[in-house]
Specification:
Blueprint: E1 7-9, H1 16-28, E2 33-36, H2 46-56, E3 61-67, H3 74-87, E4 94-96, H4 100-104, H5 113-127, E5 150-154, H6 157-166, E6 169-172, H7 178-188
Parallel strand pairs: 1-2, 2-3, 3-4, 4-5, 5-6
Length: about 190
Amino acid sequence: MRVPKFGLNRNDASSVAAYAEDVARAESCGWDAAWLPDSQLRRRDTYVLLAAAAEASKTITIGPLLTNPITRHPSVTASSISTIAELAEGRTVLTYGAGDTAVRLAGLEPARVKQLREAIELTKSFLDGNHVELGADRPAKLPFAQPVPVWLAAGGPRTLKMAGAVADGVFIRVGTHSSNILSSIKVIW
């Protein structure tokens, strides 16, 4: 998968068909990526929209920006993103984050750094086709696992450092000032 350089993050899909059309149009205009927030009380189901986008496009990278481990267990997320990766082979990315809007609107608290790390590690293990110990009678395995890069949206120093240790990529959430970006990159590396 090539790293996207120019993408859009759509929040306002008026319908599943409209979102798919928007992604196809973005692809035809040369956009590299089409991201979609995963906030269940603000928009349609992210993975249904991503499936429609995958079917309507051929080259654009797609994925949630971002999902969280509070409203979706990592096993559910791994299953969902693997299914999307079947439809959009080689152009799917999963991005985790604390989940502010999605969790707060549900009366929950955003994920902490430790929870994000555990979610990334579990999800990557599922996506690699490994047996994963979840505390059930036997380890779980995703029978249709697909290789999908797992990124993290991060802004604080602890989250940036953790992202550098376990994530495949990082969305740096510190604004656009060059000194903020450079200092964040130093923390990641």
